[in-house]
Design a protein that fits this description.
alpha+beta, 2 domains, five-stranded antiparallel sheet, elongated
Length: 161
């Protein structure tokens, strides 16, 4: 039995009071009368299960999907490299450097420059001279653990309320 079969069977039992989805060659066991509200509830459960599974697959491929701006810190490029290694290149337009950081509890944080380096405007400094960096994540609960790991190497400038 596949994981999908198990999940569907759980929904059928919990929402529709159907003990088995196997064909049993008995009209009384194979045919059911179901209220539309129970059917709707079961279909919504199945829909949410599929949506959740799809989101997990997308995040497994690219964990930074769905991250958004949460805070701004001041830190040197060299300190960030020392802490997190060489950055990914970003899109080389609005972002030139970005770090993807996995925190305890499988939380994802990103540190990146945004429109602050030479790749965006010749008036901006080279990436190694950038001092202000954005923190992104799926939720604000990544800011404090990230700052704790960066103790003494970053100063919080702004935080989304």
């Amino acid at each position: 039995m596949t994981d999908a079969d198990k999940r569907i069977s759980e929904i059928a039992f919990r929402k529709l009071n159907i003990e088995s989805l196997e064909t049993r060659n008995s009209d009384s066991l194979d045919f059911r009368e179901v209220s539309v509200w129970n059917l709707r509830s079961a279909l919504l459960c199945a829909y949410e299960a599929g949506r959740t599974a799809d989101t997990r697959k997308r995040l497994a491929k690219n964990p930074k999907n769905g991250t958004g701006y949460l805070a701004t810190i001041e830190a040197s490029y060299d300190d960030l490299v020392a802490l997190w290694g060489q950055p990914s290149p970003g899109d080389n337009y609005k972002t030139q450097a970005e770090w993807l950081i996995r925190l305890p509890g499988n939380k994802i944080a990103t540190i990146y420059n945004y429109k602050s380096s030479r790749s965006y405007s010749d008036a901006n400094p080279e990436i190694k001279q950038v001092r202000q960096w954005h923190i992104g994540g799926h939720s604000a609960n990544v800011i404090d653990p990230l700052l704790k790991k960066m103790a003494g190497h970053a100063t919080l400038i702004d935080r989304v309320k």
